[in-house]
Here is the input.
Amino acid sequence: MHEVLLFGQVPWGRHEQVLKILAGLCAMQPQRVIERHAVYKPSQAPTQQRGVQVGGSQTIQQQQRPNRDRPVQSTELFYVQAIQSLEESDLGDKIPNGSETNGTTNVMKKQSWAMQFQDVPQPGKRAVILRQTTKSKIVDGDAHEFMVTQGNTFITEFMTEGYQFVTGNIVLNMYRPLQFHPTESVLSSPREALPPLDSLQPLDESGAYLLEASILLGSELKPEIETQGTNELRDLQARMKGVVTLKVPERLSLDTRVK
Here is the structure.
């Protein structure tokens, strides 16, 4: 799939105000979104590892997409993510004495995982970001085992918490990345149990949120569809003027290639 995007920043002190404005703009209440992002590094280019399943991967099902959705004939390596959708009840709690408990004994087994690839945004002077992306559900089995049997190595993980809105073809995600507390040993897989959400530290120490506006354009990129998507985002950009500045970030700040 291809998508077009614009990004903005919402200071912590204004996030409630912006939520109310977005609720009015989209004529809907904000939908709470909590996700765990496990980052993996492939050991070889996708064209070399495609079609090979060994060990536990034979018992793991993944929703398949047409080959044209996937990067082809590429010798570069790209980080990929396994993303898990969560409820706050999946995480731990703080108890009266000030200590914490972890959440579900093994939240890894909760079947709400998807594998996501995001390409480097296309070069050129554009009014919006244009990039290729794929997101496929992992519908059965152990998500980490699936990623490993596809030739990937676990690198790190983080959480995001925020809110989602939809208006027309545009999906608006207002979120902030959260870091886990450092561990004494290097983890080789995602955590089985998760700490309380409010014990995690925002990656941006100011607590600011990112506002991401995106439109999926489809697998085959047609000029007229790209133009329509671009115009819709530019219209939103104008409507949000004075509220949040939506803009095109530096292209290489979204670079997902393994260096």
